[in-house]
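DM between two lab members

TW: hey, do you still have the AraC family transcriptional regulator entry open?
JB: yeah, one sec
JB: this one, 67 aa:
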Amino acid sequence: MKRSFGCTPLEYLTRHRVEQAKQLLVNTNEPIGTIAEETGFGSFPYFVRCFSRHTGFKPKAFRIRYR
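TW: and the structure you got?
JB:
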């Protein structure tokens, strides 16, 4: 899979989850913790860490900026 997509399966899944979370943050009023759960992250701190690594923003800052 790494040859086909340029990343490991876990990296691909994490990117997909972050993309889903970005859409939910901008288009809904759901609490950020709920979005973390709905997108499959095991814990809130892990969600914040992954989201920040992929976007350069913490989830709350992303929501404020892109709404």
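TW: got it. The chain has a mean pLDDT of 95. Residues 32 and 60 are 7 Å apart (CA to CA).
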